[in-house]
Amino acid sequence: MSIAIASFDKSDQTAIDAAFQVAAAAQAVDLPDFPQLSRQQFEGGIRHPMPSRSLRMALATLDDVSVGYLVLYLPQAENVNNASLELVVHPAFRRRGVGRALYGHAVRVLRELGRKRIIAATVGPLPEGPDRPAVGARFAAALGAQPALGEVRRRLVVDQADHAAHDALLADARERATGYRTVTWQAVTPEEYVADVGYLDSRLVTDSPTGDLVLEPERVDAERVRGVERVLTARGRSPYHCGVVHEASGRLVAWSMIVVVPSVPRHADQQITIVDPAHRGCRLGLLTKIENLRYVLAHEPELREIDTWNAADNKHMIAINEQLGFRAVDAWTNWQLDI
């Protein structure tokens, strides 16, 4: 048996199709509660990378059968010594050296590019959660990677949400948020808030727990905000936003975003929620999350599940999410490896 690794790019539809089949098979085994992977989701990520990021891809074949793939995400503005790695092996072909072959290819490419560090994530079980294969964690540890940040995925099942409790939480948050008002929008940020969204987005690495990950804060300006919006549109994703405006200054000082993939309308991801440090203590994070949850549910009647990830030691945001009814599902580990 011979393992072959071949690079490909976004113009190679045959290779993209083969990688998609591997990804779909792996997700069905490793994350069975995820919605079935759609081709739109997978291809969108390859064809439309985020601003200031380039990709390198490779496909692994075993006796001419596609058995694994690799995507390297290469920051081009900040964190230029880093590379994020997505390495997936078909469940039927694991423990045959495919992962090692893909990893070896990745290291050769990254060294040629002058990169010094790989960051990658794996999933595992929680003590009282559903079973999850430990194959990813074992592989990362065997390569010498170090666990740098632990996260937990939580899920809100919409039909089980306690809307009366949400009403009470929202009333309390509004009472505490005197001098602020909420605004909502889809897709394109209103021009008067785009600089503030960039500022808040830039604070994410500074304000959120990052464990031992070696990360620089991103400098997100209005141009990059618009670039992200274009990418999400090109990928066929529908973002819903809620912000909080400080009425005295007119600035947007808190922001939350939920993203829906129309091809999988029952599922969404709760992504960033962040509050300007100068405006904390007024329940603005809770306010934006509840208002945005209501906003997305009013526009997405088929939505049934919302997932979110938090650093395991982000006690403040975890408390907010659990108040809203998010419950822990599985554990995720961000690994780091110097090359």
UniProtKB/TrEMBL annotation:
Gene3D superfamilies: 3.40.630.30. SUPFAM superfamilies: Acyl-CoA N-acyltransferases (Nat). One of its GO terms (molecular function) is acyltransferase activity, transferring groups other than amino-acyl groups. Residues 14-172 form the N-acetyltransferase domain. It comes from the Bacteria. PROSITE patterns: GNAT (PS51186). This is Acetyltransferase (GNAT) domain-containing protein.
